[in-house]
């Protein structure tokens, strides 16, 4: 398992020892060794992704086959099942002997393809077989972004120069996985350390791009990555967030603007906020709240355009209700008007939103309120930008 057994901190220590020591053959061999370790790790992760997807497809095919081959029995009356009647006759001592019939229940899932007829060889123990759909690995999880590694020491500090980013792409090409990368794959330059999102880049289908630092000091998902094309938790724990803040996503809700208009309400909400002293207080505030439904295709949602011009359906993790929140002020309402432009009619006294398409698609996913089938998002105002 070359590349997997190397501790993560050893990459950064090796980079520091190479950068702050005179050039030597020993340092050159160390750099080559670290790069080979990272390439081997990437091959393992890509192989695990292919294995997990194949395992999931096989499990789904088996479940579909079982549901077609074993239809549920149809009952023509509201009485108890036939097996209950047979038991009742036997228990009452009836003189007529009941004829045994084959059971209508589906076979136990523990038998599956490894079961044998009666009188043949015994079943294999469950612990020695791997059932389809039970793939587990600490290096890759289904519906999560893979975290690939490269080793590119940088003399510019925590920031990679353009030449450093190109060298990262070269390392992926030498590993033989450049053609296997997908939009949204995360690449981490392990030579820069493991603090925050230092050294993390995202593959956009053509190039490695940097994170967005407009709303966070440690970086967020770039605006060119539409959140609806990925599962809501796709980058969870891969792209970190500062403290207990909610992650930034980029959504365009114009398609559901009429539904947002119909469900819009001004409500009072209680939120738990942290003071500079570290204590928490419950604050009552006004919010504009609405919701819309993302339905399955056809016609349930628009096609999403990725940076590499690939067209993709809205991910099934977003299907269901999406609850939208904005500030309960005139500014917050005007911002929501701009995000649903073409639907709301401007009113006298509305505050003009800041120019630019980018600010109208920035939201935060409220993780503490979200659950499968109901995702909560809150509009991020222009005032929250760190970079003007």
Describe the fold and architecture:
The protein has six helices and twelve strands. It is of the alpha+beta class and 388 residues long. It has a six-stranded mixed β-sheet. Helix 1 packs antiparallel against helix 2. About 14% of the residues have low confidence.
Helix/strand layout:
Layout (H helix, E strand, L loop, with lengths): L7 H12 L5 H45 L12 H10 L55 E4 L11 H13 L11 E4 L10 E4 L4 E2 L38 E3 L6 H7 L1 E10 L5 E15 L9 E2 L5 E2 L7 E8 L2 H10 L22 E4 L8 E6 L9
Helix pairs in contact: 1-2
Structural class: alpha+beta
H/I helix tally = 6
Major β-sheet, in short? 6 strands, mixed
Question: Biggest sheet: strands side by side, in what order?
Answer: 5-11-12-10-7-6
What proportion of the residues is helical, as a percent range? 25-40%
Query: What's the overall geometry?
Result: globular
Q: What does the average pLDDT come to?
A: 82
The strand count comes to: 12
What distance separates the N and C termini?
A: 47 Å
Descriptive labels:
single chain; 388 residues; alpha+beta; 6-stranded mixed sheet; 4-stranded mixed sheet; 6 helices; 16% strand; globular
């Amino acid at each position: 398992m070359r590349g997997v057994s190397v501790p993560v901190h050893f990459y950064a220590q090796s980079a520091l020892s190479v950068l702050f020591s005179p050039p030597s053959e020993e340092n050159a061999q160390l750099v080559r060794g670290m790069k080979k370790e990272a390439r081997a790790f990437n091959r393992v992760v890509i192989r695990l992704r292919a294995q997990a997807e194949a395992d999931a497809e096989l499990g789904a095919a088996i479940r579909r086959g079982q549901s077609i081959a074993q239809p549920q029995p149809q009952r023509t009356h509201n009485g108890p099942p036939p097996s209950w009647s047979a038991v009742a006759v036997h228990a009452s001592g009836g003189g007529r002997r009941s004829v045994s019939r084959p059971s209508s229940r589906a076979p136990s899932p523990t038998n599956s393809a490894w079961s044998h007829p009666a009188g043949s060889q015994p079943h294999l123990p469950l612990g020695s077989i791997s059932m389809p759909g039970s793939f587990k690995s600490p290096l890759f999880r289904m519906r999560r972004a893979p975290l690939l590694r490269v080793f590119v020491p940088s003399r510019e500090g925590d920031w990679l120069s353009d030449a450093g980013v190109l060298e990262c792409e070269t390392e992926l090409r030498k590993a033989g996985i450049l053609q296997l990368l997908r939009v949204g794959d995360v690449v981490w330059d392990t030579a820069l350390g493991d603090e925050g999102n230092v050294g993390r880049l995202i593959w956009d289908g053509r190039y490695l791009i940097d994170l967005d630092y407009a709303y966070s000091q440690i970086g967020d998902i770039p605006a060119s990555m539409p959140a609806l094309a990925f599962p809501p938790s796709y980058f969870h724990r891969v792209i970190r967030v500062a403290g207990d803040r909610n992650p930034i996503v980029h959504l365009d809700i114009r398609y559901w603007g009429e539904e947002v208009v119909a469900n819009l309400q001004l409500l009072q909400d209680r939120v738990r906020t942290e003071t500079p002293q570290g204590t928490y207080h419950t604050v009552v505030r006004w919010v504009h709240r609405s919701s819309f439904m993302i339905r399955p295709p056809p016609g349930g949602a628009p096609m999403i355009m990725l940076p590499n011009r690939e067209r993709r359906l809205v991910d099934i993790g977003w299907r269901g209700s999406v609850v939208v929140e904005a500030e309960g002020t005139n500014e917050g309402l005007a911002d929501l008007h701009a995000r649903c432009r073409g639907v709301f009619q401007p009113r006298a006294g509305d505050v003009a939103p800041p120019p630019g398409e980018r600010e109208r698609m920035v939201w935060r996913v409220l993780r503490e309120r979200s659950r499968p089938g109901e995702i909560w998002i809150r509009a991020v105002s222009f005032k929250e930008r760190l970079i003007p």
